Amino acid sequence: MIARIWRGAVRRADGDAYASYMRATGVAGYLQTPGNRGAWMLRRDVDDRAEFVMFTLWDSLDAVKGFAGEDHETAVFYPEDDRYLVDRDETAAHFDVVEARATPPRLEGETVVLRPLGLGDVERLAALQAEEGVARWWGPPDEAELRAKAEGRDPVVAFAIEVDGQVAGLIQYYEENEPDFRSANLDIFLGDGYRGRGLGPDALRTLSHHLVDARGHHRVTIDPAAENTVAIRAFERAGFRRVGVMREYWRAPDGSWRDGVLLDLLASELERSER
Ligand SMILES: CC(C)(COP(=O)(O)OP(=O)(O)OC[C@H]1O[C@@H](n2cnc3c(N)ncnc32)[C@H](O)[C@@H]1OP(=O)(O)O)[C@@H](O)C(=O)NCCC(=O)NCCS
Predict the structure, then answer these.
(1) What class has domain 107-272?
(2) How far from 173 is each of 146, 158, 170, 203, 204, CA to CA, in Å?
(3) Alpha carbon of 172 to ligand 1 centroid (Å)
(4) Relative to the CA of 189, which ligand 1 atom is closest?
């Protein structure tokens, strides 16, 4: 992963207008470029100037070039920059990202709250996962794996699903970040006492919104067992559409290979399904 950094400064009185202008030009441009992993606009006011740092993360230098062009070290400017900027870097600096950790935000749905998984949730979630109705699809709980998720050492990003302040289940996503195939895959379970109340679709829609709005995904997928017709209906209720059957896709706890169903949800459909 690559970090790109650029600095500029405007008159302090222009700071707010410049931030709005940058949101509509630079930030939008970063986020729309395949292979961008996020954009941060930093500001500090010093005397009569507002200094800005644009910090962006990218899959690769090729992804940066998709934004900045072949001569990627040259800074990208926009038509009204001259009106605002009193100081500017003519080039952008690039760094290899050696370590990157971000605490996921707390997300609020209609009823559920999705809270980044903590170590304190592991025991409760292991107990919920051990229930027959969950273990049948998820396999038996693995506390070491749950701890790795809570500590951000696992490739998936996991949230505890909270209902009325109680941990009711788990929802997680895995990002495919190969730029030409970028998407996010979800997985979810709710404990026995929490199913059949629309909480699953609420959690799935809430996380899908986050993946589209904050993580820049245009497509979200989920792939339950073909036999898990209850889950498939719940996912369709959340707005997912059935793509097709993936034959002998997953290995069941009894060791046999079973079919799975791929469902997906496009960003545009997520908005439509809620009107
Ligand atoms: C799949 C899952 C997340 C769906 O969430 P949910 O909140 O239960 O979804 P819904 O409220 O839409 O209800 C799902 C179905 O359960 C039924 N149901 C009703 N009461 C129920 C109860 N007490 N317990 C279980 N299911 C119940 C609902 O009627 C609905 O069935 P229908 O489609 O025939 O109407 C949840 O059922 C679950 O955690 N299942 C076990 C783990 C699992 O299968 N995960 C998916 C792996 S990909």
Answers:
(1) alpha beta
(2) 14, 7, 10, 12, 10
(3) 17
(4) 39
